[in-house]
Amino acid sequence: MLNTNKTGIQAVFFSLFYFLNFASLGVFLPYLALFFKENGFSGLQIGIVLALVPLCKFVFT
Questions:
Q1: What is the pTM of this model?
Q2: 7-49, pLDDT tens digit by residue?
Q3: What one-character DSSP code corresponds to residue 1?
Q4: How many domains does the chain have?
Q5: Which domain holds residue 21?
Q6: Beta carbons of 46 and 36 less than 8 angstroms apart
Q7: DSSP string covering 10-58
């Protein structure tokens, strides 16, 4: 019984971690291109930088 309760608590923490991770990405990523634009990046440079994250995820996972 104790092991089942521990597993449930771990699942809650794991779910909370995933929620906070993707919620923070959802808040942060839409403004990242504007941040780069304000710092003088061209449209091509912004596209390359933003494309690197999914490319690295694809290559390294």
A1: 0.64
A2: 888 999 999 999 999 999 999 988 999 999 999 999 999 999 9
A3: -
A4: 1
A5: 2-60
A6: yes
A7: HHHHHHHHHHHHHHHHHHHHHHHHHHHHHTT--HHHHHHHHHHHHHHHH
